Every structure is written in structure tokens, then in C-alpha cells.
Amino acid sequence: MSADQLRIATLDRDAVEAYLADLMHVSRATWDPQTCTPWVEPWTADQFRYDLAGKFSMSTYLADGDRAVGVCIAHERENGYGPHSDAPYGFIAKLALHPDYQGERAYVNSVRASGALFDASIERIEGSGLSAVRLGVLENNPTALRFYERRGFAMIGTQRGTDDLKRIVMEREFA
To answer: Residue 120 belongs to what domain range?
Structure first.
């Protein structure tokens, strides 16, 4: 890995097809039954194609040379849980970074790769004119909770899914 070869780009339809095998590899490499919803397996090729075909227009990916090594899937939702529930907001559906690029191992412009990738999608959401961005994280994932709190997210509630696991719903409002 070379820091000068790391770059963040928009994940559009062309990028999905070009990097599909890489994105699936990242999804498999980051899936952990302790911190991921147990019944949700790593994404398949069809899921990436379907879910990223258009509605995830605020998504980004991290490339190392000609390989995708991370993805942040983001889109707009019409309504949902918490304050401003009737106003559209951005939603982070997935943040996955290959383990070789996590922590102190990789930087993009002096920012850890995970933060740079996530921040790029947040900037796209904010630039779209939405007033807030939300995400959900399993309560048994304190590392993720701290990561999001450091980026201005606050807990706005909890949800219990059909799997009976408790998710912390977090939000960051834009000025």
C-alpha cells in the first residue's frame, strides 16, 4: 500500500461494475458476527448492483491503485425514526474498510483511511442540502460508537430489530 496511491471517489454505477469483486471481498473481510447483525451475511454481487444502481448516490469508495479497499454506502431517506422524522435525511447504510487499511495502517491526506472515507460521504450528504445524517450501530460495537461520536454524531434513540438486537440510532445535524 502506498499513501500516494490511496484516493476516494464517488461510487457510481460504473465504479460498482469495475470494482464489484473488490467490494465483495471487502464486505466478506469486514463481516464479524460479534459486531454485525448475525442474519445479515456479507453483501452479494446482486445486492451491490441493486442497492448501488442509483439510490445510493452519495456513496464513496477508497481505492488503492486499481483496487477498491473500502466503501461507505449512503443515500437519502424520506422519513424515519427520531427528530425531524418527516424531513428527508441522509442515511449511512454501510461503512466497510479492508482490515489491512484500518487504524494506523493507512492515511489519506493525513487522515486515517476510515475517517477520510466516511467524511467524504458525509460531505456529499451535507452538500446535497439535507439537514441531517443518521445511522444505526449495534450496541455491542463500542469502537464504532466512539468513531461516530468523534465525528459529531449523538444518540437519538434505540431500535430493536426483528432479530431482537438493539441498535443505537445516531444523528448529526448540519448547520
So the answer is: 3-133
**Where do the H-state alpha helices sit in the chain?**
13-30, 45-51, 113-127, 142-150
pLDDT at site 39: 47
Q: How far is CA 33 from CA 30, 72, 76, 104, in A?
A: 10, 19, 27, 24
Residue 148 maps to a domain: no
Q: Is 65 left (phi over 0), alpha (psi -120 to 50) or beta?
A: left
pLDDT at 74: 87
What string of DSSP letters covers 88-105? -EEEEEEEEE-GGGSGGG
Q: Is residue 15 assigned to a domain?
A: yes
